Amino acid sequence: MKYLSLISLLLLSTASFASGGGGDSSSPFIALNPPIVVNIVDGQRIRHMQVIIEIKLVDPANSAKIDLHKGPIRHELILLLSSQDAATISSALGKEQLRKDALEAIQKVMMKLEEDPIVESLYFTNFIIQ
């Protein structure tokens, strides 16, 4: 039953995001679609975490650069998110630290690929642990 509810959640999330794209080119905000889903360890249990992330660009004209490098960005975020401890990120302080770490990870990728961090802020617009 647990897996059925997770599959339903993923299907609904994917369907709702399939119709929308990233931000328009004049908006400084870009949603990193589709949602990122990873497994995390909680003691002896494996849990699932789904996050929806929006990033704020320093300059909205850089949205094409984000689209170009979504693969490496998502890769780094998946590695970061899947290494989290469920107990730590259950608190507000833990989520805030994770947000800062995720922002730093994206900026590091963009510095490597574009020699410009491009991203000013990162926001979790949905954060589910099941």
Radius of gyration: 15 Å
Q: How many helical stretches?
A: 5
In terms of per-residue confidence, which ranges show pLDDT below 50 for 5 or more consecutive residues? 4-24
The run of helices and strands is: HEEEHHHHE
Helix content: 40-55%
Return the domain count: 1
Largest sheet: 4 strands, antiparallel
Question: Roughly what fraction of the amino acids lie in strands?
Answer: 25-35%
CATH class: Alpha Beta
State the end-to-end CA separation: 12 Å
Estimate the global geometry from the Cα principal axes: elongated
CATH architecture: 2-Layer Sandwich
> Do you know the CATH topology?
Tetrahydropterin Synthase, Chain A
Pairing-aware structural class of the strands and helices? alpha+beta
Mean pLDDT: 86
Q: How many beta-strand runs?
A: 4
Could you walk me through the main structural features you see in this protein, from its secondary elements to its overall organization?
With 130 residues, the chain is α+β, with helices and mostly antiparallel strands. It has a single domain (2-129), classed as Tetrahydropterin Synthase, Chain A (2-Layer Sandwich). 48% of the residues lie in helices and 26% in strands. It contains 5 helices and 4 strands; from the N terminus they run αβββααααβ. Strands 1, 2, 3 and 4 form a 4-stranded antiparallel beta sheet that branches. Strand 2 and strand 3 form a beta hairpin. Helix 3 (70-82) runs antiparallel to helix 5 (92-114). The longest helix has 23 residues, at 92-114.
